[in-house]
Amino acid sequence: MRKTLEAFASGVLVYVIVAACSAAGGGGSAASSGGGSAGLGGASQDAPSGTGGGTGMGGAPQDSSLFDAVADALTGPVPDAQANQSGTRLRARRYVATDGASQFVGWHDSQRKEDCQFMTTAEGKLRCVPTAMIGEIGSYFPDATCSNSLFLSTACAPPKYGMRSTLGSACTGYSVTVFGLGPAVPGTQNVYVKNPSTGACTSTANPYATTAYTLYQAGPEVPASSFVEATQQID
Prior knowledge:
This protein is an alpha+beta fold. The protein has helices spanning 2-32, 64-75; strands at 90-96, 102-109, 114-120, 126-130, 133-135, 150-154, 161-167, 174-184, 191-194, 201-204, 213-221, 229-230. It folds into 2 domains: 2-75; 90-227, no CATH class. It is built from 2 helices and 12 strands. Helix 1 runs antiparallel to helix 2. The longest helix has 31 residues, at 2-32. The protein starts with a helix and ends in a 5-residue tail after the last strand.
């Protein structure tokens, strides 16, 4: 917010300088309007260098450095508003080009040593949870209780976390619960499915045994308090 106000104040200062220069030039024009043929400052209309007899408005030499400074202020970039400013724990991640350009791409939790993104957790708070998570697959379970979760991932990227997404209401939207992951389920091992009508839990062959996907068992839940909390703020 401070940077934005500084940029605005700079713009106002530039406007005042330009207005002052214009007023100074206009005074010369008014004084000469009765003596010159048509040009400003008593210069004839056919003067080869334009208004003011080739020396600037009012017949006085121009200070080019002033106008150069004004032009630079008008065409220069607005100072960075620090919209993606690093904190003491969360650090901004950027793509940096060889010519100096940069683009914000996300956050890195320096304490947990992993990239993260802001999502609403099951406790109802906005927190920076890991970006490298796989989703829960609710139709299959690892045992006959049909109560423990399984998570699905491509075999080429062994995951570290699983995410359970829960819809609260139309007003609150989705919230997430983060789990560590247990061992992978071998393709030869049966899994269980739950009948939504009767609640019966029955064994079935692993449907991902011959695919590029792997099922993982759920590990312990990761406490939401271990992730950085945030609140929404409008500048």
